[in-house]
Amino acid sequence: MASFAQFLQDSGVYAAQSFMIVPRGGFNLVCLRDWMAVRAASRSLPKVSVFRNTAIKLEVAILQRKDFTIAFRFLKHLDQSGKVINATKWTPDDVPWFLTRLNWVFGAQTNIFFTLVDAKWITVQKALGPKISRDVFRKDIAPLKRRGADLTCFLVGDYAAMDTEAAGEYLPDEQVFVVVDQGNPPVFDLGEAFIGVMAHEIGHFLHHKRNMPGSGHHNRSGILLSSGMESLSLDKQLVTNFNAW
Fold this sequence. Notes:
Blueprint: H1 4-8, E1 13-14, E2 19-23, E3 47-51, E4 54-63, E5 66-78, E6 84-86, H2 95-110, E7 112-127, H3 134-141, E8 151-155, E9 168-171, E10 176-179, H4 193-209, H5 236-242
Parallel strand pairs: 2-4, 5-7, 5-8, 8-10
Antiparallel strand pairs: 1-2, 3-4, 5-6, 9-10
């Protein structure tokens, strides 16, 4: 079992700011096994939970649930001999794991959830090479998105992203995004390199849905969408951007 300090990172409680989200009409229950690992806030805040005469004070935001639909597409294309090959190591069988992690990241921390529409292979009858270019993605792959889904994720193996999107890219006009197989290990540690990039691109989608200015990148290290080191943690500002109360 994870310690309380570890559990906080994915529970909708941002310990560094003593901040917690609660679903509208619901609750957020945290098991305090080693509460001493978390520094209690010094100021008076709306909600106070007391365990064994020890108060841990958290600022609370009541968030309305938001739901979006998502589809996944796994690329096949031709090699130089004309044979159909898989461009990605991931398969539709991996999607339940994707959704479990994504709904834990966004559900617990922002009360935003994603429901699967479908997940399937797509085949482009061209030799696309070992790295998919941005022009090829927009012209030949993005149109194969699931019509009617709020968002479509494409798994293409390797991708020539922009410098600011080193391991994936979100196209706001198409409401699709692409991620590379290996994720972005230099930016995401703790084994979250792949899901981290997927969550990053979904963060751009949520930022865009709120009509927020700019790309959504920021300089708060250790937080999703940071221009530096990232994690799957969302701070109060990012929660506000995604799902304001």
